[in-house]
Design goal:
The structure holds 2 protein chains of 2 kinds. Chain A is mostly helical. Chain A is built from 8 helices and no strands. Helices cover 66% and strands 0% of the residues of chain A. Chain A is globular and about 50 Å long. The radius of gyration of chain B is 20 Å and the shape is elongated. The chains are: A mainly alpha, B mainly alpha.
Chain lengths: 183, 213
């Protein structure tokens, strides 16, 4: 557990500084831990929802990553988000929830589950709900991997507009996924 | 959508972010809320008019120290609660400290006062104004704080809403204290504490709905 915490925390600190490889690494590992956590917590009939929950949580982690304080341990932060999303899901689907302890952070890295299935989210359908400028910015920077300067040139936007639109777009995608799952 | 694809999209060209952002956002919203609360107080009530008397200044200092302590502790707690799992790092004892302190001073002050004057000291003159103005004038600061809390990630929404309400209530109480001429410790301990607690309870109730993410 301590080695996992140390590794993940180091990767996350680099990610907050804008290190793409570290971020990909930490998100990849978190997706396996989250899958293991949700699968262990949910009954078999919820299986189709597990990948949706994993992806909703990853997007929440991304758009709220500025709330991770590097002076604090990292796994309890992830656990708190995973637990929050699990409680939110359980309330939506079956009403009141019996308590899940907030101090159970070791739970988050207890299982490493790489057996991914596809979520029910359709990326093109989600992108279609964004405004054209925001959609273009996401497409150029996040899907095609263009730099901000290249995306600005291609989209006829300023570089700061590209940044703002990417930021806004990721927040909207996260909100769409979270909202779409509510009754 | 495959999770690996999502991870690739999220991580591609990721922007650096500052972990100090939550503190900054909370302080800015509370500061703007305080300015609007002070302006509203000046427009509708005005500062107390007996500022030539030393006693007025003494009680302005006492009320400012009391509400200021609550504002400070609330802001510190709010920056913790705004982060996932931060509710574990909130000290209830510290949060209650200003109220307990005020209560002790109030009891001490009553103990050296004849029983016949207790009622006037506790009820005061403008208790109803205090009870109405503080929660009403807390609405704008509360909205400002909730607005930034929605961009953060509290995982205990009732506590986050209650702390937002407590912060807004204590800011509003500070503004009201510049108008308030009820100069007694029991009055402050009762009515200021009660209205701030009321703001916290209301904040907790609406926070659950407003803060979902």
């Amino acid at each position: 557990m301590d080695t996992i915490e140390g590794e993940l925390k180091g990767l996350m600190q680099a990610s907050l500084g804008g290190d793409e490889a570290a971020y990909r690494n930490v998100l990849g590992r978190l997706s396996r831990y989250l899958r293991g956590y949700y699968r262990a917590r949910l009954a078999a009939q919820s299986a189709p929802d597990i990948e949706d929950l994993v992806q909703e949580t990853l997007l929440a982690i991304h758009v709220r990553r500025h709330t991770y304080d590097p002076a604090q341990p990292f796994t309890p932060w992830v656990y708190a988000i995973a637990r929050y999303k699990l409680i939110d899901y359980l309330r939506r689907t079956r009403g009141p929830v019996k308590s899940l302890p907030i101090d159970d952070a070791k739970e988050i890295a207890a299982r490493d589950d790489h057996l991914a299935s596809e979520s029910t989210f359709d990326l093109n359908q989600l992108l279609g709900q964004l405004s054209p400028k925001v959609r273009d910015a996401i497409r150029y920077v996040k899907l095609d991997g263009l730099s901000v300067a290249e995306a600005a040139a291609r989209g006829g936007m300023s570089e700061s507009a590209v940044k703002v639109n990417v930021h806004r777009g990721m927040k909207t995608l996260s909100a769409l996924i979270a909202k779409g799952r509510r009754p | 959508m495959k999770t690996d694809d999502l991870v690739r999209i999220i991580s591609t060209n990721v922007e650096a972010v500052s972990y100090r952002e939550p503190q900054r956002m909370i302080l800015i919203s509370a500061g703007l809320g305080a300015v609007t609360a002070l302006v509203a107080m000046l427009l509708f009530l005005g500062v107390r008019t007996d500022l030539s008397e030393l006693r007025a200044w003494q009680f302005i200092m006492v009320k400012s120290a009391f509400t200021g302590a609550i504002i400070g502790i609330s802001l510190a707690n709010l920056t913790r609660i705004a982060r996932p799992g931060g509710e574990r790092r909130v000290s209830i004892a510290l949060g209650l400290l200003p109220f307990v302190g005020a209560l002790i001073v109030a009891i001490a002050s009553l103990s050296i006062t004849p029983l016949s004057e207790w009622k006037a000291m506790i009820i005061g003159q403008y208790w109803l104004l205090c009870l109405l103005c503080i929660p009403l004038n807390a609405i704008v600061p509360f909205a400002a704080i909730i607005w930034v809390m929605r961009k953060l990630a509290p995982t205990n929404l009732m506590l986050a809403g209650a702390m937002a309400g407590r912060t807004a209530g204590s800011i509003s109480a500070f503004a009201y204290s510049l108008h308030c001429t009820d100069d007694s410790f029991p009055f402050i301990a009762l009515w200021y504490s009660l209205t701030i607690a009321l703001c916290a309870v209301l904040g907790g109730l609406v926070g659950q709905r407003l803060l979902r993410w």
